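Notes, p. 3: input format for complexes.
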Amino acid sequence: MTTAVREVSVFGDGIAYFNEAADLLELDSGMRRILTHPSRQIIFSIPFQRDSGEFEVYTGYRVQYNFARGPAKGGIRYHPGVTLDEVTALAFWMTWKCAVVDLPFGGGKGGVTCDPSTLSTNELERITRRYAAELVEVVGPDKDVPAPDVNTTPQVMAWFMDTYSMHVRQNVPGVVTGKPLEIGGSRGRVEATGRGVTICALDEMKQMGLVPEQTRVAIQGCGNVGLYAAKLFSERGCKVVGISDVTGAFYNEHGIDVTGAIEHATKNRGLEGFKGGDRISNMELLTADCDVLVPAALEKVFTVENASKVKAKLIVEGANGPTTPEADRIFKQIGIVGLAEIMAKSGGVTVS
Ligand code: NAD
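Output follows (352 residues plus nicotinamide-adenine-dinucleotide):
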């Protein structure tokens, strides 16, 4: 993998980390070849009708990276940035995440390249049902089990499960995790990923001598993972000084009222207009004064451009692949401790 490719490829970042670990383990070349190639990559068209009556076609993906430890397992992402490269990287990381916490699953991931903020609920349902129908032969409790990820909710999982069940002519709740409790979802699943992030962070903070009551936390991305992490950090006595989402970032050195921020974000579909802190840019949040920084949005957040400006002592990866290998080297040089996402974020799949 050349440096040039690594700069643009998310999967390339994953392979760079893999090679470092494989060198340390003195892994033989055959095993390296197997583990750096996805088992199966599926790309398909999703034609659907908009509410206006017009037809649209989106692209869907599912990557089943590895089945050695069990059925593939991993979320479905709805986002304009979804590509085959990104989905492959996410499936690759799921493989390691399941192995790190010793779950009997391989790694998988899927997605649709779309902007859900421009879609009605009915359009989202039609896209999800078509996405599920395209995958009927290759998913299932013993084959591949999808779950929520960015912009996919328990409702999306319910549509997926219903469509699959209709095709196979029986009720199959085990085809997805992260579904609503009423149809067999697991209690605690919604907050599980954020809870896992907080548990790992508090444990590492103890080792570093950071007392929760004197620890300032900033969180990038206040969706499912970030919001619950913020809530739990604050419940454990930490001061949440920074939060952000795609609409903007807010900083308050005296501590943000997390409950108020959650209420605001839920009511307004984002933090835009939140009055509990100073408005800063998303980039400023990453380099803001804090002790613990939790990236909980998307990949490639820390790069050579910003890594040396980060002030946090501890980074707990709440998103997939937020740290590029180049930034990781800088963090090591300046003594920032990083908790890798394949462990820090494993709470969701563990509860599933
Ligand atoms: P989500 O859609 O609920 O939330 C994502 C959040 O990130 C939103 O608040 C969005 O506004 C924000 N965001 C997007 N771009 C941003 C930017 N440039 N700056 C600041 N904020 C931005 O998604 P989620 O489920 O919370 O997923 C977040 C991360 O956690 C992803 O990397 C996902 O793969 C990973 N993850 C989620 C789960 C889960 O259980 N939901 C499990 C494993 C991994």
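The pocket of nicotinamide-adenine-dinucleotide is lined by residues 75, 148-151, 193, 220-226, 244-246, 282, 296-298, 318-320, 345, 348 (CB under 6 Å).
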